[in-house]
Fold these 3 entries.
Entry 1:
Amino acid sequence: MPRYVLTGALALLFLAPLLWAGVASVSPQGGTAQAVGWGFGNYETLAGYQAGIVAFLWNSAVVSALTVVFTLVVSTLGGYAFAWFSFPGKNALFLTVLAILMVPYATLLLPLYVLLNGLGLSNSLLGVALVMTMFQLPFATFMMRISFEAVPRELVESAMVDGCTSFGALRRVLLPAVKPGLITVGMFAFLAAWNDFITPLVLISDTSKQTLPLAVASLRSQVMGVVDYGATEAGVVVLALPCVLVFLVLQRHYVAGFLSGALKG
Amino acid sequence: MAVSTPAPPEATPPAAARRLRRRRPARGQLLGWAYAAPTALFVLVLFVLPTLLVLRMSVSDWSLFAGDRGVNFPGNFTDAVGDRLFWPAVRFTLTYTAVTTVILIALALGLAVLVQESSRWTSVLRTSFLLPSALGLASASLLFYALYSPQASPVPGLLRLLGFDVGTISFLGTPTSALVSTVVLIVWRFAGFYMLLLLVGLQGIPNEVYEAARMDGARRWQIFWQITVPLLRSSLALCTILCVTGSLLAFDQFYILTKGGPDNSTITLVQLVYNTAFGGKNDLGRAAALSIIVLAALLVINVVQFRGLRGKED
């Protein structure tokens, strides 16, 4: 019994910061714009910050959506190729994809900054999404490869016997079969892109193109060192809410995905 | 290549042919390459090319605004190591990594053992521990930034409510408290994540082993230290490697919580790379050299870890 009490108390301790952020974001606090009374004053401050929270939300949504779409398309086609076809250079390419895990983020971001400048993609949300997709590829390609390998060969062969092209088989027969893999990859790509901090920090220089984490972080460094903690908490809630919802809805996939991701290590 | 050749409808292939096809599902190499082409393009342009470029940059006098201004080797490397913050950053990064890894893995192991049995109650607990890992590290850091602020922090009030007279607590004001406060944030954010990895390992230990130990009269602590921990070695090794690598590359949490302060006491190596490249010096060449040093150190540390762990397993 004391064991359950201990574990329950620990669980509350883990939930407490999240609950506090929610409460603090609507409560009056010292040193914030919203000095008196409960309400959404902190959110109003946040909404009017710089280019406006709507713009930052939009930037984050664009980067996340592009990253999810790119990651899904590239890893589906790649996973299909790696699982079902043999072609020269296949293993070398797969190992190169996995090698992305070996090189630290910060090491790659310097040349990527130079490279994207050269490609005319500097300071652009598209450039950020492309870089984030690249960082997602090891997990996503690995995940889609196992998903495709788990599909019974007969299923696809009978489709091809019935006159399907390989792409037709992929679209009609294989995609439904690898849906759990697609959900996992999409969810991981979303969480990573929505939350990434250092990539847009390095690649984005226009305030108006900042993603939400950057904008909320910049609340800290306001004039005269006065930090609006209430607005910061409101920003944390706006940042965390989609992640917590996605996590709670797709928890099973999250756990399963990260286990198969972990097993490769 | 002839993928769409319709088979004669009546042709159910003989068993032997079908087996042959099952062994060789390849429908043409060109087609395989076509499907792999987007992956290849991404990897080539955004990974292979930048990796070569960072090597090139590390031996060049490369400024943020003026670009490549010729060779500067080994100048970038000697300048990087000669930076007055280099050794403090190395020392701090290693300290932070050691403290984080030990505390995080010990706590994650404790949590995993506590919620090991499957039941509705434990699954609620598991979710509570896992929920922080859905947050981004930057969001979590911002949350704790407010939680640690003198103006907004509820902690001193809570302590006073419990009867402790704490005066004023400075969470981020001294080098030691800044380190401790950051480790608390990281433990909160990642403990559930590592707990889950260790749970998989725990579920791989057959029940008979525990039963046999209990029959032999082993106590709970004995079972934990002599059975659970040794059999969990590969899961613990995975957690350790992930945690060490992640901590050596720490950035978000310090950039947001401490900005490297107080008095540059919490500058990590990646923060130094960032500052060298974008924080005023604008020296991409030296920053590239520094990140090559970090990359090399990381490779060495990982090889040593793998060796050590493999050696123990034999």
Note: The longest helix of chain A spans residues 53-84.
Entry 2:
Amino acid sequence: MKVRRVAGTGVPVRGDDIDTDQIIPARFLKTTTWEGLDEYAFYDARRDDDGELNDHPFNEYKGANVLVVNDNFGCGSSREHAPRALARWGVEAIVGESFAEIFADNCKSLGIPAATTDAETVEELQTFIEENPDAGIELDVVDETVTYDGKTVDVDIDEAMRGALVQGIWDTVALLRSNMDAIDETAADLPYVDSR
Amino acid sequence: MSQGTLYDKVWDRHKVADLPNGQDQLFIGLHLIHEVTSPQPFSELRERGIEVPYPERNVATVDHIVPTRPEGRERPLADESAEGMLTALERNTSEAGIQFYGLDSEKQGITHVVAPELGLTQPGMTVVCGDSHTATHGAFGAIAFGIGTSQVRDVLASQCVAADKADVRRIEVDGTLGPGVHSKDLILKIIAELGVDGGVGYVYEYGGEAVHDLSMEERLAVCNMSIEGGARAGYINPDETTYEFLRGREFAPEGEAFEERKAYWESISSDADAEYDDVVHLDADDLEPMVTWGTTPGQAVGIGERVPAPEDLPEGKREAARTAQEHTGVTPGERMAGYDIDVAFLGTCTNGRVSDFREAAAVLEGREVHDDVRALAVPGSQTVKSKLEAEGVDEIFRAAGFDWREAGCSMCLAMNDDSLEGDERCASSSNRNYVGRQGSKDGRTVLMSPAMVAAAAVAGEVTDVRDLGVVA
């Protein structure tokens, strides 16, 4: 599947260094499938001490698909459960100031574009969404732009991510397995791999 | 781009192909597997009818979800989801022909503790695991990094990952660590200086006199936390310390084969005239024990320093500092010494090795854990545990009032029964102090070295271990 553009509405989640433990706490990783993870996205921030839903954006912007975040989003644990939980909730694209590398890689594996832009643009976008929760937002992966409020701003998408999404080759299993002979040759040349 | 570094050389040796998406296809020499990030990949392989092509280059153990109380480890595990994950791993590894160190194995433990102590991790390898702390293995001069679950699937299916080459930043640490100052303090200082996202796009090469002088166990702690500085990997060029550590280990080559392999290890070290994308200098001479005051590993100060006032920080860091200080309950301008502690936690893939417990035991000997503190000692592997028990180190911990446990990740991320409760404050030898990390969203984590955790356990508050008159 090719991912060329994502259009819909936005959901802002403010804060720097939001790590994957906050995106999905470790106690919800005790599963052997990906089912039901949307329930647990931002679980501790979404619920008060009695387990009741509070005013977190993930409770308020239901139906949104473009997540807008700040700096170093997705740092910490490598758990792919984090972007999976966001995706199951409905996130199809993320715009932020920056992303932790493993998190961005995981997004790519799931076909979720993660685009970066400067702090000022993110702030404007977040404020716009807060003031106009139903307004349309579009991320164009090919052109690397975000369009909202009648204007278009440039964003950056990592080249490997953009290539994979636009060409529809983010399922890497087939890609890697197509080089089986070359894999065996590389392995045979390594002094620590037993010849087979 | 860097040239002539260990990173360049190992990358080139393992590169299989240029991929059409612009990435490199990289052969993986060692894939470490655990129960949390592997069930879905194995299921997908089964659905797609794909067999694991290099089972012998994969090794599994169980660590995140295991109970650490001896009586809690009987099967089936009381926690049904944990039992389900363990059962899945047993089945998956058995069907694929992958070595598995389960709860019934005396070698079970945290992947990043087990692989080094068995000699599985060696210089010049590529190592991955569905766990960000895979960076640990860089201590051997390996390229080691954490991957997501889809990449775990890729490795199982092809023994390869699709990856982008990073830049290399050399972190040169001159001088000597003083008494009571450990490698954990060094890495916390590096992260505090360069920032939690300072390493994004880089791998860190640690070098210089202070790094050269570190033992292998201390080096593992430094590389382990590379990811906390945003660097996906960190490494130290192999040297005699590395080779001596490996000699005689179960999976290390023996005799002549060892010497032959050593030639490869020496050949992949960074050249004297290697070109780096960035170089940073630090001095170890003035370093003091470090503690975190906030909710990221980079929000750390020396024990004698004052907690910064948010308004004194660069503009982009002020809001985060305010929020963090509100959460931890620290006051700007004060020192962290005297910060009350409810829990002391020793263990994890950062500091759950034999030398870590020895250092803590030197502090605990003849002392008792403060009445208001519950204290947990969780060896990183069953091998670590049995070694310490053979030395009688467990007796020092028990006599001091520590709960002496079985191996696992435990309270680092609280996927088992070990967890902070309410707004407890924890002196922790682990790697993360993010909000909610230790199982309670109101819990507070103060990161520090094992010796400092022992000191905090005794005092009931954050304390400079050097004031206890022990050179641990």
Note: The mean pLDDT of chain A is 95.
Entry 3:
Amino acid sequence: MEWLMKRAEELARKHGVDYYEIRLIKVTSRRLAMSNGQLRELSSNSELGVGARAFNGAWGFSSANDRERFEKAIETAMKIAKLSRGDARIYLGDPVRDEVELRVKKPFTAVDIEEALSLVKEIDGMLKGEKIVNRNVSYGDSVVETLYFNSLGSEIRTVVPRIRLGFSVTARENGSMQDFWKSFGGTVGWELIEGIDIDYWTSHVKEKVFELLRASSPPSGEMDVIADPELTGVFIHEALGHAVEADSVKNGDSILAGKLGEKIAVEGLNVVDDPTLPGKFGSYPYDDEGIRAKRVEIIRDGVLVNYLNDRETAEYFGLEPNGHARAESYAYQPLVRMSNTYVEPGDWSFEEMLEEVRNGLYMLGDKGGEVDTANGTFTFGAKLGYIVENGELKEPVRDVALSGKILDVLKNIRAIGNDTRVEFPGYCGKGQWVPVDDGGPHILTRALVGGLR
Amino acid sequence: MMEAVEGLVRILEREDVEWEVFYQFGRSGSFKIERETLERSQRKFYSGIGLRVGLKGRLGFSYITGLHPSEEELEKLVERAVKLAKISEVPFRGFPAHENVKRVPGIYDREIDEIPFEEAQGLALEYAELMRGKKAGETISGSISLAVGTNGVVNSNGVELEESSTYMGVSAYAVLSDPPGTGSYSQNFTSLQPFEVLENAVEKAVEEARLSARAEKLEPYSGELVLEPTALESVIGVFLSNLYGDEVYHGRSRFSKPGEEVGSFTLVDDSTIPELPGSYSFDGEGTPGQKTTLVGDGVVRNFLLDHTYASFLGMESTGNALRTFRSTPHIGPSNIVLEPGEESLEDYEGVIVRKVFGEHTANPVSGDFSLTVELGYVVENGELKPFKDNMLVGNVFELLRTLRPGKEPERVQSFISPRVLVGGRLV
């Protein structure tokens, strides 16, 4: 690829471009999906593409996946940047030369697709049961090899493996239907699969779906809610994470604009986004702008101490760059994104927390969420819950969404558990999808519950 | 047929398999304006070929990117797809046979195809200037996208089809910070639009942001209310997955066959409406596009189907196999139309919900949903009082039973519907 680097340099000189960066990415991936014992997808593919960006007070971007167009894409990005009439500035810094491969114990590339197929079949068989009308199992793995280079002389090669397994069941009884699912994932190898107690987890999803069939809809209105570690993850991702992405702040689109250094949450609340956590689904060594990934404290003892940033927002806010520019693929421009976002443990045990609640809900599991960062309102869904009365868990309630105001709920947190877990892989959308992880301990807060009662 | 596809077909004809080649190529230009300044411009190129091979009742799939593969790469693509067909266990139900395809008018505009990039970027700079002119206290952002693409399907049953289409997307987003309020507008088209469309987008976003900044939470409410098309689209989305043929076949739908009563409205999927971005003359398998009544006079009449699931269910494909060259077909809607009814809702007085969010947290199999209200308003004696931050809660199957459509349809992207009256609840 030396010729492409040389050619990029020549083209930049020709078009008078100050800064450019090129990502040449090869993705090798496999995917299997099975519904009710019937294989729906088995694919194994690889592709190579280029994404080129050039900066001239505004960004020009171009991408291509036909090798004959790689050079043209680079030139196009430069031509666009030259045409753009922006006056923005970006962080430049020193060039970086590095090669990083996220190491795994047992590469999945050494595991035949037939073995992955038997795994999927085995899980499908274990999900069978009376009243279960649908079983879905999916497995996916990918290796993303990136060569990043820029006009500063940076040259970074990274290899990131990622693996994911998920399964779900749908049960039906007397015309009522419910579903429940579980997924696993990480930047690890086949050891992830070997470490899963499949017996336990397949029984668990069945048990929970039957519980949901018996459950009623929760009451509605604002009330005390204990979130389990998985729900805490999506809560903190939606209620805080998106609003501290510095591009939103810069664009006047965040309720947290101008609040750096201010106390925005309760004392004792610490929130971190850390792409360097080993093996997590949202981990990476360098971001898509060639900046080394960095652990970022977002909230320290209730005070907003940092935004997540990219080259442009770091310069704009005078912040230290922290490597949070991520792109879905070579065909996308990097945007400020989260990686693994979590709440650090406090000192409450779950039992102590439960005793605090006279009338409320214990809600579990992540069904995703959405946020309006400018209005400061967010929604997040739980898979299952229980009524809490006088510190005791009562009958189960069905999956439901909760809503809150960012600036209120962070101050309404009454207890932070001591049992942080970060193991809830998923994908976050912001016009493009990136893998993320999140989590935390049990927490007790107040939120608006959208129940049907 | 282009050279790469011809080469691929030559190789495939030597093999004792059934085959289908799906190819795509195109380019797009898009421009992102942030706080009235053009910040990001991009031009993307994409192309690729997907190959499905059927062998002894099993299906193999593989793809390559680009349209200039060597003979060796084509040989390898075939080899890979055939190998996968041998081990895959994905059932193969044949490929659609050749049928006459009626072309949908107005989905290709030469002006978009041929617009020089500089001119498109010039339009984006004018759009940014328009935002600067219209702003008064708000920050305004937005985007313009222009694209042209070609899809082609060739299979061993004699299908040989190609179609080009164009796209223009426009969006505007306005934010007020104190008190906070946001407004947005987006629409898409198949042809290059006059400047008034951009003016309209900015005006609508600004107007909505001002309403939103005045909005407060409404006291809990239960009873008759009006959903505007944008809010209804979110609710219909929860219902719609119950009509996907694969969900029906695999038991993840409320329905197992047509015939069930769900209300008193008519809902159709129609890929043949002229000049709409969701329209196409043929789907990803070469089945002609068509108008499909999903719910007719309140009764489920049909499902959204591709060739495979139609065959499993003993039905006919409805031409709803959507795909890219990277994927095998999946079932999805084209344009969804809720047919107008008799209610006069234009001057409705009462509770009106314009936008909600969070629909992916809803449960399509149970039908329960609780969605955050982004913007709504109560109209009393012609006076308008906006509200937000409540949740609209309910069960989609119960809500649809109460649905009574208004008279004037409106288009929101690929969803066309009038305002509707429903029994609903806000908490």
Note: Residues 215-426 of chain B form one domain.
